[in-house]
Design a protein that fits this description.
Blueprint: H1 2-13, E1 30-33, E2 36-39, E3 44-46, H2 70-75, E4 86-88, H3 95-104, H4 108-112, E5 117-122, H5 128-139, E6 145-147, E7 153-155, E8 161-163, E9 173-178, E10 184-185, E11 196-198, E12 203-205, E13 231-235, E14 238-242, H6 247-263, H7 286-291, E15 294-297, H8 298-301, H9 314-324
Parallel strand pairs: 3-7, 5-9, 5-15, 6-9
Antiparallel strand pairs: 1-2, 4-8, 6-7, 10-14, 11-12, 13-14
Length: 325
């Protein structure tokens, strides 16, 4: 009893009641889910942080500041349909629940009941900076996360929002765009040449001038695919060629998958499989998509899509995510 008393007294000596105005220090690995912070164990830059990408803003993120406002967007040659790039997860809500969440947001338990899919894309733009410019400024779309080649994870919206990234899956899913040039029909393999070069030490990423500044957060970062040779495989019954993602991207993605599984437990750590347990490399039927909970490729949702491509290492991501979990 005396030991317990001394232990509690010692613990209290190191704790004091927070004073008004005391900052709550973040460590830089947190994602935001229904207003709550969850650690991931990997670098995260949110829309609230310096260097972040804010999908809540109406203005275009890039280009002339004086012509970035919504009025200029409407008058420009590439007008967007609406100032918002996201919406409300309202599918299946009754009137009372709709009124609650549209005015005051979601509680975490309520959100946990609704989100059960994690849709994985490659961005086909090569960098997260360019990805946000294309989605937000040019197409009026959004995605919850972007993953740059150096493993930096950017969150653009709270996961309570319905991002516009995967059509029929949007209301029940979280989405991520992984920075990469993408996959091409084998006959068009030359499309990969502007993005990859052999520097004498192996294949490394390069960034064509047409995408603008790469905006990679890690100074001097040299990105290399996890496997040195391009991968050829079938997606949507078409033979495609693609270089692998970087080890840094895989490491960060595994941490994110583990975090999502704990914060939103209905996102199982598994992908669509056929009767033999193998990955289904094509769009799911409406019934299969309705039943599936867990990870998905964009190609599982829409027939015209091939991301994340044949090189994506599904089993490797899940293996590392389970270790992190």
């Amino acid at each position: 009893m005396l030991f317990l008393t001394l232990f509690l007294a010692a613990g209290c000596a190191h704790w004091r009641k927070p004073h008004p105005g005391d900052p709550l220090v973040r460590v830089g690995d947190e994602i935001v889910v229904a207003g709550q912070l969850f650690h991931t164990g990997t670098r995260v830059v949110t829309w609230m942080d310096p260097g972040g990408y804010d999908a809540y803003r109406v203005e275009r993120r890039f280009g002339e500041v004086t012509r970035s406002d919504w009025d200029s967007n409407e008058k420009g040659g590439k007008a967007l349909d609406t100032p918002n790039r996201y919406g409300l997860r309202k599918d299946g809500l009754d009137a009372a629940m709709l009124e609650k969440v549209r005015g005051g947001g979601w509680s975490l338990p309520e959100l946990q009941e609704r989100i059960d899919q994690f849709v994985i894309h490659f961005d086909a733009t090569g960098t997260s900076r360019r990805c946000f410019e294309v989605l937000h400024d040019l197409r009026g779309l959004s995605v919850h996360f972007m993953l740059d080649s150096d493993g930096t994870l950017y969150q653009t919206l709270d996961l309570k929002e319905r991002a516009w990234h995967a059509t029929t899956a949007n209301s029940r899913s979280v989405g991520i765009e992984i920075a990469q040039a993408g996959a091409f029909p084998v006959a068009q393999r030359r499309n990969l040449e502007p993005w990859y070069t052999n520097d004498g030490f192996g294949i490394r990423l390069t960034y064509p001038e047409w995408i603008g500044p790469p905006g990679i957060a890690t100074p001097g970062f040299i990105g290399r695919p996890a496997r040195p040779d391009p991968v050829i495989g079938k997606v949507q019954d078409s033979e495609l060629i693609q270089y692998d993602f970087t080890p840094q991207q895989y490491a960060a993605l595994a941490r994110l998958v583990a975090t999502l599984n704990r914060a939103l437990p209905r996102i199982r750590m598994d992908y669509p499989r056929d009767a033999t347990g193998q990955l289904i490399p094509r769009a799911l039927t409406p019934e299969q998509l309705k039943e599936h909970t867990g990870l998905l490729g964009h190609y599982h949702v829409q027939r015209g899509k091939v991301d994340p491509g044949p090189a994506f290492n599904w089993d490797g991501v899940l293996r590392e995510a389970r270790r992190a979990r």
